[in-house]
Design brief:
It holds the Pfam family Adap_comp_sub. This is MHD domain-containing protein. It comes from Rhodotorula taiwanensis. The protein is globular and about 70 Å long. The longest helix is centred in the N-terminal third of the chain and has 17 residues. By secondary structure, it is of the alpha+beta class. The strands form five sheets. The chain has a nine-stranded mixed beta sheet with strand order 11-13-9-8-23-21-16-19-18. A five-stranded antiparallel beta sheet has the order 2-1-5-4-3. It has a four-stranded antiparallel beta sheet with strand order 14-15-20-17, with no helix packed on it. About 20% of the residues lie in helices and about 35% in strands. The chain folds into four domains: about 160 residues, Beta-Lactamase (2-Layer Sandwich), CATH 3.30.450; about 35 residues; about 130 residues, Mu homology domain, subdomain B (Immunoglobulin-like, Sandwich); about 140 residues, Sandwich (Immunoglobulin-like). It is built from eleven helices and 23 strands. The protein starts with a strand and ends with a strand.
């Protein structure tokens, strides 16, 4: 990597590091900014300001610039052009030119790590304005993260020893501590000494001499379920993505060993670990062995897909029970003058923040003509024990603009109406939450012939969506069996929490 530049989506520069050949780098960025590909090849023969190889053609969008050995950068960086690696986050482009034959995962991973570091350092979203407001901080971070074209420090826990986060509360606490220590004649370690301890450490992600009065480590596993169901609630396609975050406040050089009850969930090709994990031991023993960085970091991520034979067997109830924390049956029909819908939702585990969005058939007569009834759910009672209802949630009809393909005229925007059903919480012991409703698609004063003519334009949406939170568990079955501390003799408080989030699409 020859350096890093941050631009907006149009390619306008916001911040750049130094480049050995600024003109070549700028021309390469100008050519790459026209593409949304992660890797854009800029051939040397056509001039870097010209069209960027096959990435601008319709039949080359799915090809990776590294797939063709004739297009790979050479070790000298001359004669065959240059590749630009880029990621797009929150309206910003993070770009780096590569003129040597390296694994493209390296620069792309570095740019992703850079964005996560900026999220840690910048108070609020990483935007053009916040990057400009923290210009000196970002440049200092890039100076520490990239040395000689190679990634050096990429973890926030490491970088905070060299670049102080611009946190007013942290600075206030530091100032208070300095004043108290100075008045008491207590010498304070400087930031330089902490940085030197990190440099002198045998592990690049953890400095020596860390001490805490109380030692604790927390593991937070978050799983996200994505699935497609048929109207009867049978899963057609499903996948689970997971991320385990670790927060470590441990003294010395602790060596942790983490085991799972069902490590098969973390497949060989679907799991990615932090660089502190001893991967060879994981492959042999299925034990996550590591010396953790100090502070918060992501220990592992994974993608799990339930076995496809299970998804396609005749025992749909068994398949749904193993994958979904709820059961749902739905019906959405469209008749001569309107539509009717019915939903029945039962929780298999405690769920919160349930939101069901049902697009209504178009054209709808008027939002005020939608008639909906909800029942069931939790039994809510007042202080005197009287039933007060409300357990089945609340509903509303909202309008939103969507783009619709209009043939040769291209895309046009139109307004559609969406029925939104919200349920705060639903437990297995609650009654099923039921929604029934109907709405008109044609004005009642029209004649039957006119109705038949207008009905030809009425279309039922193909699907609706359900989002929810599962605060008490995940979906893959991955569970922590044990977390052991080696190499230190102190007592450790260990905490493990698993939560889930789901986005499910149901066909109508």
């Amino acid at each position: 990597m020859e350096g890093v530049t941050i631009t907006d989506l149009t390619g306008r520069r916001i911040l750049s590091t130094h480049f050995a050949s600024p003109l070549r780098a700028n021309l390469a960025f100008d050519a790459a900014v026209t593409s949304s590909q992660s890797i854009v090849w800029i051939p040397a023969t056509t001039g870097v300001a010209a069209e960027a190889d096959d990435d601008s053609s319709d039949d080359g969008d799915e090809r990776n610039a590294w797939d063709d050995s004739e297009k790979q950068p050479t070790r000298g960086g001359a004669g065959r052009g240059i590749a630009v690696c880029q990621i797009i986050r929150n309206g910003l482009r993070f770009m780096t030119p590569v003129a040597r034959a390296v694994d493209p995962v390296i620069p792309l991973t570095f740019l992703t790590d850079l964005y996560h570091v900026l999220e840690f350092y910048i108070d609020g979203p990483v935007t053009e304005a916040t990057v400009k407001d923290n210009f000196d901080i970002v440049l200092a971070l890039l100076h520490e993260m990239l040395a000689g074209g190679r990634p050096q420090l990429t973890q926030s826990s490491q970088l905070k020893e060299f670049v102080t986060p611009p946190d007013s509360q942290l600075l206030a606490k530091v100032a208070t501590a300095v004043n108290a220590a100075t008045s008491g004649g207590i010498p304070l370690p400087s930031q330089a000494s902490a940085a030197n301890a990190l440099v002198a450490s045998p592990l690049p992600w953890r400095r020596q001499g860390i001490k805490y009065t109380s030692n604790d480590v927390y593991l937070d596993l978050t799983e996200t379920l994505s699935a497609l169901l048929d109207p009867s609630g049978k899963p057609l396609v499903g996948s689970i993505s997971g991320q385990m975050d670790c927060r470590s406040r441990l003294s010395g050089m602790p060596d942790l060993a983490l085991t799972f009850t069902d490590p098969a969930v973390l497949g060989e090709e679907s799991a990615a670990f932090h660089s502190c994990v001893r991967y060879h031991r994981w492959r042999k023993e299925k034990v996550v062995s590591f010396v953790p960085p100090d502070g918060a970091f992501t220990l592992l991520t994974f993608q799990h897909t339930p076995p496809l034979p299970l998804m396609t067997t005749t025992s749909a109830r068994l398949a749904a029970a193993l994958l979904l924390p709820f059961s749902l049956t739905s019906s959405h029909t469209l008749g001569p003058i309107g539509g009717a819908l019915s939903l029945n939702l039962t929780a298999r585990t405690a769920l919160t923040n349930l939101v069901i969005r049902i697009p209504l058939a178009s054209p709808i007569e008027a939002p005020g003509q939608v008639q909906v009834t909800v029942s069931g759910g939790a039994l809510l009672r007042d202080d005197e024990g009287r039933s007060i209802g409300g357990g089945a949630g609340r509903w509303e009809v909202i309008d939103e603009e969507v783009e619709e393909h209009a043939g040769e005229l291209g895309a046009k925007r139109k307004t559609r109406y969406v029925l939104v059903w919200r349920i705060d919480k639903l437990s297995p012991s609650d009654r099923p939450a039921v929604l029934t409703g109907q709405y008109n698609t044609l004005p009642g004063s029209l004649t039957a012939n006119l109705r038949s003519h207008s009905l030809a334009g009425a279309r039922k949406p193909p699907a609706f969506t359900l989002t929810f939170d599962s605060p008490s568990g995940g979906f893959s079955g991955l569970r922590v069996d044990s977390l052991k501390l080696l190499g230190e003799t102190y007592n450790v408080y260990k905490g493990v929490k698993t939560v889930g989030k789901g986005t499910v699409e149901i066909r109508t």
